[in-house]
Specification:
With 77 residues, this protein is mainly α. 57% of the residues lie in helices and 0% in strands.
């Protein structure tokens, strides 16, 4: 029996992964007691790439302010 796995590579699947990563990032930020503006919350939930969300989640683990999480990356210049 052949199973179609194309769903796991689909745009919908990627979107669902990003939504999960965004929710995880929000949980980390909130559990650390960091204050998140509505603008930054929208930035997280507005269809960011998985790589960007993963980087922000790593930063959120040690950041002392929400702004530190979203500081511009050197390669983004």
């Amino acid at each position: 029996m052949v199973v179609d796995t194309s769903f796991f590579r689909s745009e919908t699947s990627q979107k669902l992964r990003a939504e999960g990563a965004a929710k995880a990032l929000l949980v980390v930020i909130e559990s650390r007691g960091l204050i998140l503006s509505e603008e930054l919350r929208a930035l997280i939930t507005d269809g960011q790439s998985l790589d960007r969300l993963d980087e922000w989640t790593r930063r959120a683990a040690t950041a002392t302010t929400a702004e530190e999480i979203f500081a511009q990356d050197p390669e983004d210049n």
